[in-house]
Hints:
By secondary structure, this protein is of the alpha/beta class. It is built from eight helices and 13 strands.
Amino acid sequence: MGRIPLGKGHPLVLVAGPCVIEEEGKTRRMAEILKEIVEKAGIPLIFKSSYDKANRSQLSSFRGPGMRGGLKILAKIKRDLKVPVLSDVHSPQEVEEASAVLDVLQIPAFLCRQTDLLLAAGRTMKPVNVKKGQFLAPWDMKNVVEKIESTGNRSILLTERGTCFGYNNLVVDFRSLPLLSELGYPVIFDATHSVQLPGRLGTSSGGQRQFVPALARAAVAVGCDGLFLEVHEDPDRAPCDGPNMVRMQDLPAILRSVKRIRQLFSER
């Protein structure tokens, strides 16, 4: 999968970063801290941050710097820190410009069935990470995969991020991970969005970050190929997804535990 091998027989990969690109210096500082943490843990990193959070609860919610401004920031982080970068794309019109910078194009969960967007992303021949919609069963992702495959692109990642469980709540069915794996592509587990409480706070989403470590450990034990974790130096003051983001200082302990679990199951 580009410069980082991903899938069965390869090390666990971490996709991580703040939910949304904030001020350039702040985003770069968090990327530098994150890179240092994962290098000490010995886990490959794909740096993630969104240039536009198009799906927000409230009209006035912070969305980020926009595509062009955000891509400039990600391009500098990619060049200077020598890490692959990932961000969301929301429309076919964004894909060509975004793919010139991004190493991985991410399809947001609410857009995972948008045919034109999937086809445009597939035609770039860049790796495409599709978040499974909260409203889909794992076997429904077969249709999503076939749309991307129709472009000739086989660099596909599938990310589990929880399933709607009544109003303002999500639940994780860990059967989803092996079921998604049967589609033939690496499976990522998004432990931070899986503890999100969508719209719970009325004008924003809530979250239960205290459960992130447990869900991450469980997913690695079940056999995911990578983890997706949104992290922040001060999530309680973050402009987006603060309640479900992991504090940067808590990340090393999470990575140590999941790495031990991965090694244990690899030895069997």
